[in-house]
Amino acid sequence: MPTLNIYTNVPVDAVVTSDILKDATKALAKIIGKPESYVMILLNGGVPIAFAGSEEPAAYGELISIGGLNPSVNGKLSSAIADILETKLSVDSSRFYIKFYDVQVG
């Protein structure tokens, strides 16, 4: 089950949260090639974050997946999630990091 945890210092209301969850689910499922029914997104808004000594809008993500990740996929996912965060929360892509965990079964 691909799971994306997103933390941001931007407060998020219910409407924006719903939009981000829907958009991120679709993007993740499409890019990794797994059904949306397997994708879990967690969004944590209003988290205290300082990035480069500034408290301007920023975000951090962790993506855990059993297979499906590689450098090409990771780049596409980073770009897609950064676009969603910039559009919905005004988090500049230069103020967003994502860490990938490709879990091996066995």
From TrEMBL:
Signal peptide: none annotated. Its EC number is 5.3.2.1, 5.3.3.12. Pfam families: MIF (PF01187). Keywords: Cytokine, Isomerase, Secreted. GO terms for cellular component: extracellular space. It catalyses: L-dopachrome = 5,6-dihydroxyindole-2-carboxylate; 3-phenylpyruvate = enol-phenylpyruvate. It is found in: Secreted. GO terms for molecular function: cytokine activity; dopachrome isomerase activity; phenylpyruvate tautomerase activity. It is an enzyme of class 5 (isomerase). Belongs to the MIF family. This is L-dopachrome isomerase. It comes from Cinnamomum micranthum f. kanehirae.
